[in-house]
């Protein structure tokens, strides 16, 4: 076997997925012919349910780019998506057997290669799955890779990740990934919208994050965000809000070395913390 499987976060379960298929960089061929009719049907039903939920809740750039995924009645071939993605932003998607370790993950992103899990959840897991599968990765993450500014942010994140890894700050930076790329909200002219993949691929959290008066929403602040622990098995207690992808890109341009020192000095916060310096975002 070329690579070791990764054990993710607090999870004690062995990771799902066959890592014996992986190359040294953790990528593998998309085993398209191995999908069953039931697999394609699961994808079709997930796509149908989720796309119907988007109006008024999903970021406009996401809604605009979603059709670029192509077929919706079966699991797409990654090669076909790449024929559209490469000319759009220079990104490509690559298949992986499941979650991969921090360093190779950052390395792929730094080279504009987005890892997409190739297996799909079982029908029993239709509503909820902790680990990313092909539906989460494709539907949630890939549309915004067609947006030039967001695409540049994800590459910059990968480059910053390699540096953070060497500084021992990978875990701190992973919180920024979590609260932006996975669970980010954005203020648009029409109101608050979701752009994070974890929200956009979830049937329940999409409405909750954008509309629930019980959700805590604060303006994104790098130090506050990287201090904040997160939930991997429940709706987020706190969402961080941006005003534009340009703002996110510009905010992450500076050298993070002193920012990590500040984050460490201040210490971590529970997922549901409220602190005096927070700028709460109120619903329209
Ligand atoms: N600019 C940051 C640094 O120098 C890295 C970074 C980029 C972090 C983008 C997050 C997102 O460390
Ligand atoms: Fe994800």
From TrEMBL:
Annotated GO MF terms: iron ion binding; phenylalanine 4-monooxygenase activity
Region Disordered: start-end pairs: 1-22
Asked whether the UniProt record includes Iron among its keywords, one would answer: yes
| Signal sequence residues | none
Q: Which reaction does it catalyse?
A: (6R)-L-erythro-5,6,7,8-tetrahydrobiopterin + L-phenylalanine + O2 = (4aS,6R)-4a-hydroxy-L-erythro-5,6,7,8-tetrahydrobiopterin + L-tyrosine
CDD domains reported for this sequence: pro_PheOH
List, for all copies, the residue spans of the domain called Biopterin-dependent aromatic amino acid hydroxylase family profile: 1-284
Q: What EC number(s) does the entry state?
A: 1.14.16.1
- What InterPro entries would the database entry show? ArAA_hydroxylase (IPR001273), ArAA_hydroxylase_Fe/CU_BS (IPR018301), ArAA_hydroxylase_sf (IPR036951), Aro-AA_hydroxylase_C_sf (IPR036329), Aromatic-AA_hydroxylase_C (IPR019774), Phe-4-hydroxylase_mono (IPR005960)
Q: Please tell me the species this chain comes from.
A: Hydrogenophaga borbori
What are the UniProt keywords, alphabetically?
Iron, Metal-binding, Monooxygenase, Oxidoreductase, Phenylalanine catabolism
UniProt-recorded name of the protein: Phenylalanine-4-hydroxylase
